[in-house]
């Protein structure tokens, strides 16, 4: 579907290194198709479906009408879903996307585990990793208490903060997300050395590595967990009205908690101008990232779909003024996420904006508008 409409299009050729600011932006691209909206949570929302549904029916309902069963990334998500349940009469509970699958390792922030992939974690169904005073790792029950290492994602690189308080792994995760960015993740020997140097004052401290059997229906990379002490039986998960999770068998009847993503990732690759036409023709324009919340939601979607290469978004640079604007004509606001920390200087042939994965983070960068990448569109 991505390219059917392009087969009959004529294409404009641009001489090498001629400034590309002359893209024909049709007047309708600046129309009310781009309503101003609250940036917080505008790219994902939760939905409650009342009724009695088995797990299989719940998955089908969510995928048919929305995106999938709800993936819960943090405490804020859990509170929003619990609020939906509170508004239902009786004592309801509802299916969410967590399910029991194969045991696997995952970093708290969703990064892929590439360093020490063979690190042996044996301590029960759920294990968490801690760094010892010699820089080696050990696997512990996540309910044990230790000091812990957070990181703060600054421009270019992360800064590490050792917290000398004893908390369980999940308590430490919550603290790091509230005060900093997350529990620390480690992708190579150099980062391991940096974390060890920062944590030398502590005997043993949590890092962000978790091993358990929880997977998500949509393939999301969430490590947030909120199970009751009595897990229950079955391989699937419901949220109770108090916000706690329990396991159930698939034939149990429950309400459904779904989510809707407003981000579309194209299958095919195209130039920025073709991406602009594609997103306006079939969706609601190229993706705008207006806030940190928007950036977080976008990164979650890219990690969920395992997108590693650059992707186009609605950024472009004005040749006349040199400033960066969104494809609908709005100026880029105060919140940005440029790879180098500030907008790129005016360059020949690099007037279009993309997201590019840099050390596990998706940063804004400038690209030649004629390059062909997949594209992010907004869905409403």
From TrEMBL:
What InterPro entries does this protein's entry cite? C-type_lectin-like, C-type_lectin-like/link_sf, C-type_lectin_CS, CTDL_fold
Q: What is the protein name for this chain?
A: C-type lectin domain-containing protein
Keywords of the record, alphabetical order, are: Disulfide bond
What the entry lists under Pfam families is as follows:
Lectin_C
In terms of PANTHER family, this protein maps to: C-TYPE LECTIN DOMAIN FAMILY 20 MEMBER A-RELATED, C-TYPE LECTIN DOMAIN FAMILY 4 MEMBER K-LIKE-RELATED
The residue ranges of the C-type lectin domain are 58-151, 155-259, 258-378
